Amino acid sequence: AAVTVNPGRRRFPQLTDEPAPLHPPPPARVRPQPPVVRADAGVVALDNGVVGLTLDCRNGFSIRELRNRLAPRTACRLDPTSGLEVRAGGTVLTGRDFETTRVTVEASRVRIELISRRADVPLVLLLTLEIGRGPEVRMGIQARNAGAETLRADMRFPVLKDLVLDAPEHTWIFFPQYRNVLTNEPCFCHQPNHRGFPLQFMDVFQPKRGGGVCLMTRNLEAEPVQYGLAKRASGATAYIQNRGEDFPIEPGATVRLCERVLAVHGGDWHEAVRFYRAWLRTWYRPVSSQDKPWFRGAVWFRSHIASPTNAKNIGHTPPLYDSAARRWRTDEFLAADERLLGLKPDVFHFYVWAFDESTGGDVARDGEYGPKDYANLGGLESFRAAIRHIRRDLGLPVSLYTIWDRYNTDTEFAKKWGDRFAKMRADGQRLISPRKVYISQGVPEWRNHAVRTLGRLETDTETDVLYLDVFGSDDRGRDYNPNAGHAHVPTWVARDDADFLADVRGGLPGRVALWGEFPVTDVGSRYWDGFLMYDCIPLHEYLARAEDVLETAPQWSRQTLPPNVLRFVLPHLRQVVFPVGTEGTVDNWRFLKFLLFNGQALFDTTWRLYDARCRERLGRALRIQRRYMDCFDSDAPEMFVPTERAFVFANRFPGKGRTLWTLFNARYRTVSGAILSVPHVPGVVYRDLWNDRALTPTVRDGRALLSLRLAPQGIGCVLQTAPE
Fold first, then answer.
1. Which of 197, 546, 549, 723 could form an SS bridge with 191, CB 3.0 to 4.6 Å?
2. Following CA atoms 686, 692, 696, 702 in sequence, which dihedral angle do they give, to the nearest 10 degrees?
3. Bridge partners (DSSP) listed for residue 350
C-alpha cells in the first residue's frame, strides 16, 4: 500500500466554485440641474444633470447617446441607429428612412416632425421628447397618413438597439411577463398588454456596478401596446410598439399613441420597480376591491363539484349534492379537507353547480345561472340553505363559479340573440358549436347581460364571492366580428377587460369579492380582488414564454425559479395557485413550495393531487401563511432582497412588529452557513419557521447574520420579532 501526499498547490479543480452574490451599489447622489434642451445643426441634446439624451436629426431621426449619471461607473452605449422603426406591408423603415422637416424647442420639450422617404409608406410623424428634473424623459408619437389609402403600420418608439452596460455579458434584462424573465443569457421576449403582461415597464441593467435603463408606458386608457426585450451577444434591444392592425389610419387622419417614458437609474432592476410603483401611487385606487381582510388573508380556496359527471371525472368523488336523497355532503367534504392538509379551508368554492347532465360531454351550463340551474340542486331554497349553512354555521365565505366567454344555446340570451355575437377569428371562422357560442367580453349586450345576471345571482344566493372563469383575456383571442357592437375591430382586450370588470363591480354590493382565472392589466385590476395563478407550474408557458432561450445545467437553473413581481407591486391582489395538470409528477412539492416563497394561496378541486410528503409540507406552508398573515398581506413586500449567497433568493414581508423572509435555494446542492444579513436592534429574536427552531445570529455593526441549511432546490422561512 502507498499514499501520495501533495503539500503544494491544488492539481485538480474544485467541483464547484462558490460564486459571489451580486449586490449593486446604491444609486449615486446627483443634484438635478434645471432641464436644458438645445438644438444645434440638427443635433438635439436634452439634459438635467441626471439623465441625458443626444438625438441626431440631421439624416432622419436616431438616439445617438444616452447618459446615466446615477451610475457613473457603468459605461452605457447603444447602436447609433436606435430610436424609431416602422413596419408596413413587409417594409421596415428606421428613423433614417425619414426626412426631418422641422425641429422645435419649447422650454424643456423638443418637437421633431418627420416625413417618410418611401412613397409606399406615406407617414408623417410628430415625435415629442420632454425632460424634467428627475431621471426620466417623456416621449410621445403621433402619426398622420399622407396617402390615399388606409395605412396599417407597426410603429416602434422608442427603440434601443444593442444597449450595452459595460459589457454584453454584464448586461441583464428584466421582463415582467406572466412568469418574469430575469437573465443575461440569450432570449427574446415580446408581449402585448394582456393577461400575459399585466404591468407597463421593462428594464435593462448591470447588477454588479449598478445602473440601468427602464422603458415604460403610461397607458391609462388601456390601448393596445406591445413590449419587446431581447438579449443577444451584442447587447440588449428594447422597444415599445403599437400594431397597425389596432390603429388603422384613414387617409388624412392622425392617431396619437400612449405616452412612453425612458428612465435611468442606479442599482439594479429593483429601481425600475420603484419607479413604476411611484407612478402607480399617483392613480391606482381600487374600487370596492382589495379591501376585504378575509379574502386577502385566505390561504386555501377549496373547490367542490356539484355536477355528478364532473365530480366523477375531475374529482373522482361523488357530487356535492345528492339529488336522490336531496341532501348536501358539505360537512363530510369539509371534514375530509381538514384531514387532507391538517387545516380547514378559508373559502368554499362551488364549481360546476350549473349543469345539464342530459347532454353528455361538457355538461356545464353557462351564461344564465338561474332557475334551471338551481333546479339541479333541489331548487333555489335548497341552494340558499346550503350556502347559509356554510357561511353562518361553518363560518366560511362562499364563492360561486361563473364563466363569461361562452353561453349555452338553450339560455334566454341565446334565444334572443342566437349566435349573432359569436367570436370571430382573423380568418373569419366563427367560434360556435351545437351547444355553445363563444363570445368576447367586449360585446356591449353581453356585458350588460353579465352585469344583470351576476347582480341577480348575488341577490338570489347571498354569496360572498363571484368567480369569473377564463378571464382576463388573451391578446391571441381578439375578436374580429364586425357585427358585435365593438368600438374597435379587432378588439382591444385590455380595455374590454377593464370595462367589463368596472361594470360588473358597479353592479354588486361592495361586500362581494370578485376574482377570476388570469390577471388583467394594472388599469383593469382596480375592480377586483384576485385571480388564479399558474406561474410556478409548467402551464405558465401557455400564458407567456420567452423564446430562443439557451439552457444549460450549471450550478443552478432559472427554469425552476418563478419570479413574480406582480405579487409584490400590487400586494393586495390575492394570487391563488391552482396546481392543474401536475398530478402524477414525481414530486408535486417541487412546484407548490413556491406558494410559501411568494406568499400565494392554494386552490384545488380534489383529494388525490398530493403524496403524503407533499401534503405535510403543503399544510405546513399554509399554516405559516395563516399565522403570519400580517406579514404576507404587507403593503410593502419586497422581491429578491440581497442574500449572502449567490443563487439563494429571498423575499421580505414586513408585518406588525415583525418581519418575515422566505428563502429559496436555486442550486442543485445544499447550501449551509451564512445566508441572510438583516438590520438588527437589541432585543429582537429570530426563528426558523420552516424547521420550527430558534436562530442565534452573529451580530456585527448593527446587522444580524443568519446561518441556515437549505436543501437543493429547497425553501426556508425566517422570522424576526421585535421586543414588546
1. 197
2. -20
3. 304, 400
CA 629 to each of CA 661, 680, 697: distance values in angstroms, whole numbers, following the listed order: 13, 22, 25
Count CA atoms within 13 Å of residue 346 on its CB side. 19
3-state SS record for 238-288: EEEEECCCCCCECCCCEEECCEEEEEEECCCHHHHHHHHHHHHCCCCCCCC
C-alpha cell at 331: 360537512
Q: Which residues contact 489 (CB under 8 A, 6 or more apart)?
A: 479, 480, 481, 482
> At 304, which helix (H) or strand (E)?
strand 300-305
Bridge partners, 574 (sequence order): 530
Q: Is 673 within 8 Å of 610 (Cβ atoms)? A: no
Measured CA to CA, the distance from residue 333 to residue 126 in angstroms comes to 64
Q: Are strands 574-577 and 530-533 parallel, antiparallel or unpaired?
A: parallel
Residue 22 CB neighbours (<10 A) = 15
What 8-state DSSP symbol labels residue 432?
Answer: B
- Reported pTM: 0.95
pLDDT tens for 622-681 read 999 999 999 999 999 999 999 999 999 999 999 999 999 999 999 999 999 999 999 999
Are 209 and 166 in contact, with CB atoms under 8 Å apart? Answer: yes
Distance CA 209, CA 492 (A): 41
User: Could you say which DSSP state residue 315 is in?
Assistant: I
Chain Cα centroid distance, residue 174: 13
Determine the pLDDT at residue 67: 97
- Distance between CA atoms of residues 614 and 612, nearest Å: 5
H-run or E-run covering 131? strand 123-131
